[in-house]
Amino acid sequence: MEWMIWICFICIILYSSYPGKIKKLESKVKKLERNQRGGCVMSNIITSLIGKECKIKTEEAILFSGNVEVNCSVLDADDEWIKISYIDKKGCAKIRILRIDSISNIEIISE
Fold first, then answer.
1. DSSP string covering 5-36
2. What dihedral do alpha carbons 101, 103, 104, 109 form, nearest 10°?
């Protein structure tokens, strides 16, 4: 009976690292899916908007600007993230980093 307890203990120790491995695999699968459905093409398009004034529509904008759309300047972008600068309600310049996946619409204000 004692050996059953030891076997269970060893199994628990061996399988305790699986959640970390699963998260790594999930991120790799998401990256492959994004590449397969054209996520890189979208990030290339957004990269071409660096330095331009845009109106970005995203659900995350509600959290920091109180509106679904935010007028901003695109500072930097990569495959997953976009860095924007905007003016908040108080007139202060703020910088935010958003996931490209969360953006639903981008409208160029000026070139």
1. HHHHHHHHHHHTTHHHHHHHHHHHHHHHHHHH
2. -150
Digit-coded pLDDT (tens) for 75-100: 999 878 899 999 888 889 999 998 88
Tokens representing residue 59 in the block: 């659900």
Q: What tokens were used for 46?
A: 């957004």
Q: From residue 70, how far is each of 4, 36, 59, 92, 98 by CA, in Å? A: 61, 29, 10, 14, 12
* d(C-alpha 11, C-alpha 1), whole Å: 16
* Pairwise CA distance, residues 73 & 96, whole Å: 10
Measured CA to CA, the distance from residue 73 to residue 56 in angstroms comes to 10
Name every residue whose Cβ is closer than 8 Å to that of residue 68 and which is 6 or more positions away in sequence. Answer: 57, 58, 59, 61, 62
Written as six digits, the tokens of 10 are 């060893």
pTM over 0.90? The answer is: no
